[in-house]
Amino acid sequence: MILILFDVDGTLTATGDSDMRCYSAAYTKTFGFTMPSHDWHDYEHVTDSGGLGELLERERGSFVTDEEMAQFEAALVAELEAEYAAAPEGFAEVPGARRLVEAVAASPDFAFSLATGCFRGSALFKLEKIGLNASEFAGGFANDSFSRVEIARTGIARAGVETQDIVYIGDGIWDARTSAALGMRYVGVTHEADEERLRAEGANVCLRDYNDLDAFFDAVRIAKVPEMKG
Questions:
Q1: What is the three-class DSSP state of 65?
Q2: What is the 3-state composition of the chain as percent helix, strand, coil, each rounded to the nearest 5?
Q3: Structural contact between residues 7 and 134, judged by C-beta atoms closer than 8 angstroms
Q4: Regions in the chain scoring below 70 on pLDDT
Q5: 41, 91, 144, 176: which has the fewest C-beta neighbours closer than 10 Å?
């Protein structure tokens, strides 16, 4: 049994630009501040909750509360809904993603779970727009932790399977680093990401999309654990 962990933005959904616009708008409307950077590489924790905590700590010197996170999550989903109504083309799938998830779910050789830096509400909304009802998917979300490593651990635990062979599918250098930290094998996704950067983080195999399911399963077979940097 192989457990496959899927990131969401840039991995299953081609929603990186729409998501950041909505995140920024929700942050300003909820707290009255402007994001100083829209580049997730500038944040310690590349998660909705971690970024929010860091932003508020910089602006006002105090960390985000649970109540504020819930308030922000609701505002973010409202922004996503408005964005989708205005520009649904910004909520596409990474080509072949829905068919891939359905194939993995139907296979006796695999289990799967989500491990995403998104809040659960926003993740489910974006997955719904590519035809996946993810409300019953196992997963770890930004609601569970600020840390990608802890989110991945939560996704693994909620999958409820006994296996040591875990493959993380993700588009960020933070996904490669999480894989290295937890000893998971890693497949990089380059539909919205820089392949050279992912390979520099130890991805020995990368895919642009999932139009070729055989290529995906070959990638899972040969993927390696990235080496820890530094």
A1: coil
A2: 50, 15, 35
A3: no
A4: 229-230
A5: 41
